[in-house]
From TrEMBL:
InterPro entries per UniProt: Arylsulfate_ST, ASST-like
Signal sequence, start to end: 1-23
Keywords: Signal
Taxonomic lineage of the native organism: Eukaryota, Fungi, Dikarya, Ascomycota, Pezizomycotina
Pfam family, one: Arylsulfotran_2
Protein name per the record: Arylsulfotransferase N-terminal domain-containing protein
Keyword set includes Cell inner membrane: no
Naturally occurring in which organism (per UniProt): Aspergillus tubingensis
Presence of keyword Signal: yes
Amino acid sequence: MRQFSSYNAANLLTLFLATNSAAESTWPQQTFRSTSIQAPYLNVTKNGKTELGNLFFSPSSSSMEWSYPAIYSDDGQLVWQGPNANTSAYQPQMLDGEPVLAYWQGANYLGYGFGAISILNASYQEIHRITLPGTDQHFVTTADPETFPSYIDIHESQITSDGTILVTAVNVTQCDLSPIGGPKDGWVQDGLFYEIDIKTNKVLFRWSTVEHLSEIPLTNTELPLLGSGTSKTDPYEYPHLNSVAKYGDSYLLSSRFMCSIFLLDKHGNVTWHLHGQKGASFTLLPGSSFCYQHDPRFINYSPNATSLTLHLHNNENANVFTSPTTITTGLTLTLDMQNHTATAVRKLWNPDAPLFAVSQGGFQPLPNGHVLLQHGAMPVIEEYDENGALVMNARFGFDESTQSYRGYRFREWVGKPTTRPEAVACREGGRVVVY
């Protein structure tokens, strides 16, 4: 038996004790004496000094039998576990100068969903709930006539410095698919994003891919039709938006199946387009290609900069129609805005244990120059130092059985639970042991 490491009590919602060590129990699940919950073991291997802070990710079984936001300590101990429900877009962030937790929960379909965003304070209490009611936006879904209380998609919960939140959504609509060999009266699952005021739940900005076909034509896609697009119940999944971030008045948008990153102005017009296979607005220099990416973000964005740097989780695989044979990496690119070139300046991966993530994933630059990679469909979190050396490998499940949409390290979080720690006293070997 092993007890959770002695940890700052303010950081613990509940103190648990596992019934067995990882080596003695059926991995990856562990059970506890003081509670009925179960949680994956986080097996951590360190090869050097890591950044400070807990690890935040949402372990989920591939069948979604269990899924929840969680916090683990750096040595693999469970600190907090949220409600067990379909969970995605979980991220520790700052709101009004205070750390908060934001996550999506709802009805999860294959690669999209319909739900709401919960925002929790340091006491793990919900202080805001962000929704997109169908009565306001008139969504059409593959599940019609079934309806949902809220139609926010699984992919984003990005809080801005303006007190707003960016979320994605999907909507089934008719579209001319003849440019890519489909029917003229075809159907697509449009990708949208919204900027919503957190305190009032008021939509401040709405953007639709289909409404910008003149700037983002269907021919940008890397997703074959595969017979889809002929009906409302089987729409062509164009474009599968999987992240959006705001920089000043501009939005950085990622499309998985177009292998593309777009910068949009405040009106939603395309400023530039970076296609990971075709270049688009840029010429791809050797080593700078990417595809099926997740979580692209700028480093020190300036609208008038002559050079921009962005990073992304480069999956390079998609289980829908490709075999997972290309190594997944953390990729950093420099965009020369004068010569319109894209140059790879850093590519992170472990040659001793390469990973092939077919979906999901995150890239987080850390304050000390390190990078945290969470590999989505692969239940692995890696930390690399400023020289590109692997200093931590953490695994929380078997391949193809456990996943997490993204993962983060966050040193600003100090939990302030309002509940008392749960404890159980047992008589063992003639003595009382408290768990």
